[in-house]
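User: I'm putting together notes for a lab meeting next week and I want to include a structural view of one of the chains we've been expressing. I don't have a solved structure, so I'd like a prediction I can at least talk through. The sequence is below, exactly as it appears in our construct file.
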Amino acid sequence: MSIDAPPERRAPAKLRGLSHLFASARYSAGGLARLLGETAFRQEIMLGAAILLILALASVSPAMLLIQVVLLLILAAAEALNTAIELIVDRVSPEVSVFAKQAKDLGSFAVFCLLVVNLGFAAGALLLHA
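Assistant: Thanks for the context. Below is the predicted structure for the 130-residue chain, given as structure tokens.
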């Protein structure tokens, strides 16, 4: 943006140091709040809690629990990116579009793959522990 642009169109000044850290935390909290509005994400939270509870009750190793937590966080990140894709596609292409459908389908497939990975890892951890 040019300095000649009207104030409402100018990019905000870059924050540095602790101000940047706190602003980033606020943006992340806003993203989480938005994601909690998604039914799919809430279902994934419940699934993740159930998986962790089952693994804990089965007394799998702490390393297995930690790996499962990391996989669940990767799933949450994929769901966030999928939701971002859907929001952008809906904004840019509100009409029915093959490209919009394909973009949304690809994001959904990424989430599905991570659901399979999470369930597969949990099943493997249970089988190894049995």
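A couple of points you could mention at the meeting. The chain has one domain: 39-129. The domain at 39-129 is CATH 1.10.287.3610 (Helix Hairpins).

User: Perfect, that's what I needed.
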